[in-house]
Amino acid sequence: MEVTKLSVLSDQEAHTFITPVKRINENHHVSRFLTSKAYYDIMAFVLQLNTAMYPCRTQIADGTQYILQSWELGSPNVPLSDAVRQVRGLVDELCSIIDEVPPDPGPRRFGNVSFRRWYEVVEARLPKLLDHHLPKEVMSPSNSSQVSIKVELQSYLLGALGSPQRLDYGTGHELSFLAFLGCVWKAGGFDSSSSGNEERGIVLGIIEPYLQLVRRLIQTYTLEPAGSHGVWGLDDHSFLPYLFGSAQYGPAISESDETPIEGSLLNAPDPADVTKIAMVSRERKKNMYFSAIGFIYDVKKGPFWEHSPILYDISGIRAGWAKINKGMIKMYVAEVLSKFPVVQHFYFGSLFSWDEDPNAVSQPETVHAAIQPAQPQAKTSGPQRDRSRSEVIKVPPVVHPMATSSSFVGTAAPWAKQSSVTSPMTAFPSQADQRSISQTPRLPFDSNSRTVVSNETSRQALATMPPPSRAPWAKLPGA
User: Fold this and answer.
1) Reported pTM
2) What is the dihedral angle through the alpha carbons of 435, 440, 444, 445, rounded to the nearest 10 degrees?
3) By three-state DSSP, how is residue 22 classified?
4) Sign of the C-alpha dihedral computed for residues 284, 287, 290 and 292 taken in this order
5) Antiparallel, parallel or unpaired: β 347-348 and 21-22
6) Angle CA(175)–CA(177)–CA(178) in degrees, nearest 5?
7) Could you report the per-residue pLDDT of 380-421, keeping only the tens digit for each?
8) What value does the mean pLDDT take over residues 112-122?
9) Beta strand pairing status for 445-446 and 451-452?
């Protein structure tokens, strides 16, 4: 199967780099993002890496037998190119800086402030680290502007390390690291002519060490989940290991095969094995999916179905790991790329552009894009800004469940009189009842006019009111 790969900048034309800026500020901007060139490039890169992680089936010379190859963590079957080793060295360097900035002593619930010092050290050293660890082809492309590619690379890499202000980390930061690798690919830093070898090297040789770096940051500085759904999210911090890890267990395919939608690799563990700690301990050394599950067991206690119900539900899928992988791709679009709290922090430059993709289909605003925190209204004495119609989230009216039928017979309480249940109860007052209610004299406080009515009207209203109900156990007067 021919996979559409992320495009590489042309050596014949000078490219204009720009400083990445924030574009997604309102919920309707998410729909605009889904038609941008950046979204197209992100999905192309994700699918490119995902397809490369499926096991490979190669026919031998006589044509009667096949050689199956799977891509496990640390497998010698995945050679790492010089470019992959260089970028991995950058990740290792970031990890070593943690040893220089130990966490502040004492228990802390909402993040350790030492993370800010670690982030400051990284930010100060990053220009030299990029010069030292990135291929020369990346750092010296043809440029027609005063802004260098290093500005865009720094923006995405710093955005991939968590938030020093909020002391948290989430899938939006993970997305920023994916964009950083995409920038290196676009600049010609990786071998784009290989048939999947370079992509596998990126996933296993760079992304997996990056995830290990992130997990160490979370445990060392007790970083909070960013934009998490709690137990109703796939994972508090990451998504990509579940995507690429499920592909690792998919059925073997040849270069001419389409990406499968069902089945699993021979002898692959059952998806339900995520609930077995012994199996997770064994498989986490070989597979990214189980490596992420193992980290959950490291930081959470209690039954798996209780603290990770979404992953527990996925473990019940019987159609194989390919089915899970297909669902993960759809879920990544819906739960990461279409969620305002996640993509609002993504920055757009020249390599991942906000410009509209001419081939994109306009996306309607969805419930995923509409989820955003309420923005406080600024107090001002001048006229308020006129908000466009696209900014208003229309909530459908809540319909009472009894409104669908014309009548409903209620269940009588044990102490209710027989006459109170002989006639059916309507879900809502009829027009005649409404007229009767409107003609009933009001109580002393008129809620519509906000005025106090006369005592004479009060006595008339009380005289027309029915007597109060008496509980069965209430004593009669004088008893």
Assistant:
1) 0.75
2) -10
3) strand
4) positive
5) antiparallel
6) 65
7) 444 443 433 333 334 344 343 334 444 444 445 545 444 444
8) 95
9) antiparallel
Nearest to 344 by CA among 374, 311, 319, 369: 369
CB atoms within 10 A of CB 153: 26
What pLDDT shows up at residue 373? Answer: 52
Q: What is the CA radius of gyration of the chain?
A: 31
Nearest one of 378, 397, 399 to 387, comparing CA atoms: 378
> Can you tell me the distance from the alpha carbon of 299 to that of 169, in angstroms, rounded to the nearest whole number?
15
The Cβ of residue 310 has, within 10 Å, a number of other Cβ atoms equal to 15
Q: Return d(Cα 214, Cα 101) in angstroms, integer.
A: 15
Question: Token pair of 250, please?
Answer: 């998919």
Positive or negative: CA dihedral 116, 120, 125, 130: positive
The number of angstroms, rounded, from the C-alpha of 383 to the middle of its chain's C-alpha atoms is 37
Sign of CA dihedral 289, 290, 291, 294: positive
Strand 21-22, strand 56-59: pairing? unpaired
Give the CA count within 13 Å in the CB-facing half-sphere of 294: 19
